[in-house]
Design a protein that fits this description.
Elements: E1 6-10, H1 15-26, E2 30-34, E3 50-52, H2 59-65, E4 71-74, H3 88-108, E5 113-117, H4 141-160, E6 163-169, E7 172-173, H5 186-195, E8 201-203, E9 209-211, E10 213-214, H6 215-227, E11 234-238, E12 244-246, H7 247-258, E13 265-267, H8 282-288, H9 296-310, H10 330-333
Parallel strand pairs: 1-2, 1-4, 2-3, 4-5, 5-6, 6-11, 7-10, 8-13
Antiparallel strand pairs: 9-12
Helix pairs in contact: 1-6, 2-3, 3-4, 5-7, 5-9
Bound molecules: nicotinamide-adenine-dinucleotide.
């Protein structure tokens, strides 16, 4: 293949990063990647990836491993929205400072295009469905950090002539997603708990609504962002805008598949959690005929099979709570999972 490119993926041991690596390798591109293993699973990393256990905050190391890279996917992040009001220091370090590290290393290595994974958290309290032209109104350090990272990317890339694309994925689920992390990934947490015969906890009344999408539906649009010139300097939502369901319904759907006798434990709502959050997929439909095919139940069944095969796991409280007070969810302060 003469249009073989060198890709760099940060967060390649993570959920999105490892699936992107698989597809790029399938397409015969070279993939270099880094991860500091604060999240993800090391065995997610596809064999053919040239892997470096390097933190995006380590600018000198990043500059060295990014030689001759054409296109970057920046997937590395501590993607912990709810936790970000309780552990803001570690979370923003791995979002804002880490993004600045990899953006700078990319520019200094003459990278052609930089694709940043932002988050729906950037839209905050806007009315749903969120469209890309809305003024961002993030409500927590995670969303604020994502928006700051976008701003730094736009500024530096425009000054130094690097193409940029901002992908806004939302509520993607699927195999390889961390399921022993008590701080994030609601569907995976519910499955891991129910498979251990434990009741799930829900923050607030469970009527928060989200749209989940399955990873296999979201890789193609992300790959297009590397090649399609209509994506340059664009913010693009990635995720479906149908099957908008409550967290209660999500728990009920998983319980039904597992034939689990559900008795949800309701607990205090998390500060700054947005009640209704979903994105319009109109722009993705226009740009890439985005048409997700996997229905929620089907995707959940695949995740259940994968978690069963890999084995249920104890939850690991691997990040410290920097702020502990009466607002801190007791699921975390008392390690209830
Ligand atoms: N999965 C989703 O639904 C979703 C939704 C919105 C946004 N995103 C964004 O997409 C990206 C990928 O998400 P994911 O679900 O794959 O998360 P993930 O946690 O599975 O993967 C992120 C990876 O980044 C690594 N990492 C964190 N900080 C790092 C650092 N400083 N240096 C190097 N590696 C570091 C972690 O170890 C982890 O393996 C993130 O930026 C996230 O904010 C994901």
């Amino acid at each position: 293949m003469d249009n073989k490119k060198v890709f760099f993926i940060s967060g390649v041991a993570g959920f999105l990063g490892s699936h992107l690596a698989d597809r790029l390798i399938e397409l015969n591109h070279k993939v270099i990647g880094c991860d500091n293993l604060i999240g993800g699973y090391e065995d997610n990393i596809p064999d053919k990836v040239e892997f470096h256990n390097v933190d995006c905050n380590n600018f000198e190391q990043m500059s060295l491993i990014m030689k001759n890279v054409d296109i970057v996917y920046h997937c590395a992040a501590t993607a912990y929205e709810g936790l970000s009001v309780f552990s803001p220091h570690i979370i923003t370090q791995n979002i804002v400072t880490a993004s600045t590290g990899i953006i700078t290393a990319s520019i200094s290595n003459n990278v052609k295009r930089f694709i940043m994974c932002s988050s729906m958290a950037r839209y905050g309290t806007n009315p749903v469905p969120f469209t890309e032209d809305m003024t961002a109104k993030p409500q927590d350090p995670y969303g604020i950090g994502k928006l700051a990272s976008e701003d730094i990317l736009r500024c530096l890339a425009d000054v130094h002539g690097m193409e940029w694309v901002i992908a806004v994925p939302h509520n993607i689920i699927g195999v390889r997603q961390k399921y022993d992390d008590p701080y994030r990934n609601v569907a995976s947490i519910f499955i891991n708990l129910m498979l251990q015969n434990k009741q799930p906890y829900i923050y607030g009344d469970g009527n928060q609504k989200r749209c989940f999408s399955f990873i296999s539906d979201d890789i193609d649009p992300l790959i297009e962002m590397a090649f399609n010139n209509n994506c340059v300097k664009e913010i693009i939502n990635i995720g479906p805008d149908d099957e908008f369901i409550t967290i209660n319904e999500l728990a009920e759907t998983i319980a039904k598949i597992l034939n689990f006798d559900l008795n949800i434990q309701y607990t205090q709502g998390r500060p700054q959690e947005v009640t209704f959050a979903n994105c319009s997929a109109d722009k993705a439909r226009q740009l890439f005929d985005y048409n997700p095919k996997v229905k929620l139940e089907e995707g959940l069944k695949e995740m259940i099979q994968w978690i069963k095969k890999r084995g249920i796991k104890e939850f690991k409280y691997h990040l410290d709570l920097e702020i502990k007070n009466n607002k801190t969810p007791k699921t975390w302060s008392k390690k209830l999972f």
